Structures are given as structure tokens and as C-alpha cells.
Amino acid sequence: MNKSNLLVGLDIGTTSVKAVVADTSSKELRIIGAANEPTSGMRHGKIVDIDETAASISGALKKVAQKTNSKISRIVTGIPVGLLQLENATGLINIGEQGQEVGDNDVKRVLSAAISAALKDGRQPIAFLPSKFLIDGRTDVDDPRKMIAHSLEVHGILLTAPTADLHNIRKAIEKTGYQNNFFVPTPLAIASIALDEGERTFGAIILDLGGGTTTATVIHENKIKYATIDLEGGIDITNDISAVLNTSRKEAEKIKIEFGYSDPELTSADNQFPVKVVGESAPKMIDEEYLSEIINARIDQILTRVGKGLNDHDAFTLPGGVVITGGTSALQGIDDLVKSSFNIKTRIFQPDQMGLRNPMYTAGFGVVNYAYNLDDIDYLVNSVIYGGDVLPAVPHTSDSEPRENKFFKSQATSSEIVEKEDYNNNKVASVNPRMTDEGVKKTKKDNKKGFKEFFKKFFD
């Protein structure tokens, strides 16, 4: 298999690293393998030991390379919502006094101006989502290239992350002998596969039950409107089981996976299983109802804290309800528990591709899918942010087969500045699904320039 056609989505979690490999040579993304490796060196979603984290990343990449019998060359890594900050960004440049045709370099110049103006000290850009380009301050277009203009303006959303955290992630990946191609925002990556078009437009909550953290992200009108992070997750449930039953964490994790229920009402005290107890030669019999009560106590605390923020921001009025994902969502009955706690429709999402049928792979799959569906303008953005050596997710695309614009490119409105400030302070205005931005265009023009010509000119 041509290694240039392979793309790896990396999800570096607190308890495990997940790597998803996809073949991008055909018209549709084809997943060919996935692997995970227990994580060392992470705490609450952040790297605390680069060497240990690098070893975990290396283990996951080696496993997936062996599974797929392939050599990995391109990696794209997800950045969790806890590290993201959103900024409203605008850039303006002159094209020519007499008016001249807008080219790729002009687009890169105006993108650079917008990103530089919005970037804050101590942070680095992750992605920029253009919402509109203005020709001569008047004509609103999606792609200004080949149009005649005197001036070019861009409006959009800049997503940034702390410089120190990005440095640590890059270093950990580089220590494995690989290099990260670019980063993508994990919540938008998950939304690209876990939510349908209606849910992304009219609003839904993504509840990501991870090992070290629990995050709830509100997606409305194709944008992140609110996010809340709880620094507890599946590992805390495991620690509770270990402490209460006086057993090792390894044993606690095992029985959580094999016998754990999130809702005691789904269990029976008559169903028992043996547990290895520290200091005792014979195992102790524990019933599944008692185990479920231990699990439920921690989940109830997490949902109560997360739910308060969601309720304060009217998120439970969104018609899309709650979509649950993440490794901890594999606990039996978690969807019914969330539904009863939040009093809203709930479903669990997990990829249905062969080899990915586990919710732990949702973020990794989403990262690959998000990268695969980037268009020409997105790659111009990435060339500005990451330099000219960034590689396309789809290396072989015919000039006669243009790609569609991705759905996250919604139009900017006068309220977006307030929305970004509210998000960064974890305070957002009402997300009533009946309210829509004025002037939002319903359709996007197909890109007219093929990838082959584009990348030959700018990235070879």
C-alpha cells in the first residue's frame, strides 16, 4: 500500500492513546485499522512527563502499524476542548489600486493578518475557520480566488491552545520518530461524525466520558457555543472501586469492565463475582448491585456538576439532545442514567466501522474524518499556521473532482465576538434552537481548483 495515502488520527488521552489509520486514496475515507496503548505521563488531559507519554504514543503507533502492515508517515492530532480558546478574527489587505485577480498568496496574506491580529500572548493557533471573505468591503464570497479585487477582507474564528501544552505534545510525538502534520479541534472532529447535519445546525450536546476528564460541548449552528470540563472520569471510578473493595487498580479496572453497571436498578444482588482482595489469600464474593452503587455514586457527582453548567446555558432545550461518547460510555446503562439525570433524549455514539466498534475510538476517527474533509481554503489556512510543509489529507485528487467545503464554515454575525468571549469564560448566551444568524448562506460553492495543482505549486 502506498504510504502517502495513509493518514493517522491520534487521540492522546489521560488513560490511553488511540491511533486510527485511514486510507485516503479513494473517493471515500476507508478505515483500515486502530490500536490503543495505556497512557503514562498524562494527568487530567495534560502531559506531565514527556518521555512516558512518548513511550505510550510509540506503543500505539507501532501496534497500529503492525495491524495494518503499513508504514505510517502522516499524523494529525486532536486537541481537546479543555485547551481550546476561541477568538473572533478579522484581516484586511490591499490587492491593487487598479484591481487585480486574487491569488493563493493574497488569500494567505489576509489569513495571516487575521490570525496575527487575534493571537494572544502565550497561545498558538490551532485552526482558523473562515466564515466569509469580502471583496472591496462589499461582496461576500466563500472563495475569493480568481476574482478581481482592490481589497480583500476575511472574517472567521481562530482556535488557539497554550504554547506550553502544544510544545509538550509536539515533543512527545517527535520522540517517537514521527512528526505531527497539524492539529485539529477534537470537539469539532467528534461532531463531524457523531452528529448529523440537523444536530450540528439546531444544536446538540456532546458528552465525552473520558478516562481522566469528562467534557460537555454544545454544538449549535455548526459552532462551539459552550463547553464545560470536569476533572474526573473513568479512572476515578476505578480508584473508587479499588478503595472500597480493597483491591488493586488493575483488578478494579477489570471488574468495572466485566461487571460494571452505571445504574443499580439494572442489577441484582443475587449476581455475584469473585474479587481479589489485598492481604487475603481467597477472593471475596461481591454482588453486581454493590459494585454498581460504587460506580453510580461517582457518575452522579460528575453529571450533577456538568449538568449545572449546561442547564444554566439552556443547553437542555436543544433538539439534538445528548450524544454520549468516550471510553467510559461503555458502562452498561449509562445512556439511561444520563437521560434520567438531564431529562433529555440521549444516545450513545460509537463508530460502526470494522475494528472501531468501541466508543473510545470516536475522537481518533473524528480527527481522521475532519482532516480528510478539509478543502483548498483550509489547507491555505494550515500552510499559514504550520508552514509550507503541511501535507494534504488526500494526496491524490483529480483536478476534475473538486471537494466540497466542510460544514463548519458558517457565516459570521455581529454577535460572534460576544459568543467567543462567553465561551472563553465558560459563560454563553441562550442557545435557543429557534434563533438563527441573519445572513447565513445555505449553500457553499464547490472548490474550482483541484488539489493536485494546488499542492504541486505550494507544498512540493
From TrEMBL:
<comment type="similarity">
    <text>Belongs to the heat shock protein 70 family.</text>
</comment>
<keyword id="KW-0132">Cell division</keyword>
<dbReference type="InterPro" id="IPR043129">
    <property type="entry name" value="ATPase_NBD"/>
</dbReference>
<dbReference type="InterPro" id="IPR003494">
    <property type="entry name" value="SHS2_FtsA"/>
</dbReference>
<dbReference type="InterPro" id="IPR018181">
    <property type="entry name" value="Heat_shock_70_CS"/>
</dbReference>
<comment type="subunit">
    <text>Self-interacts. Interacts with FtsZ.</text>
</comment>
<protein>
    <recommendedName>
        <fullName>Cell division protein FtsA</fullName>
    </recommendedName>
</protein>
<keyword id="KW-0472">Membrane</keyword>
<dbReference type="Pfam" id="PF14450">
    <property type="entry name" value="FtsA"/>
</dbReference>
<keyword id="KW-0346">Stress response</keyword>
<comment type="function">
    <text>Cell division protein that is involved in the assembly of the Z ring. May serve as a membrane anchor for the Z ring.</text>
</comment>
<dbReference type="Pfam" id="PF02491">
    <property type="entry name" value="SHS2_FTSA"/>
</dbReference>
<feature type="region of interest" description="Disordered">
    <location>
        <begin position="423"/>
        <end position="443"/>
    </location>
</feature>
<dbReference type="GO" id="GO:0051301">
    <property type="term" value="P:cell division"/>
</dbReference>
<feature type="domain" description="SHS2">
    <location>
        <begin position="7"/>
        <end position="194"/>
    </location>
</feature>
<keyword id="KW-1003">Cell membrane</keyword>
<dbReference type="InterPro" id="IPR020823">
    <property type="entry name" value="Cell_div_FtsA"/>
</dbReference>
<keyword id="KW-0131">Cell cycle</keyword>
<comment type="similarity">
    <text>Belongs to the FtsA/MreB family.</text>
</comment>
<dbReference type="InterPro" id="IPR050696">
    <property type="entry name" value="FtsA/MreB"/>
</dbReference>
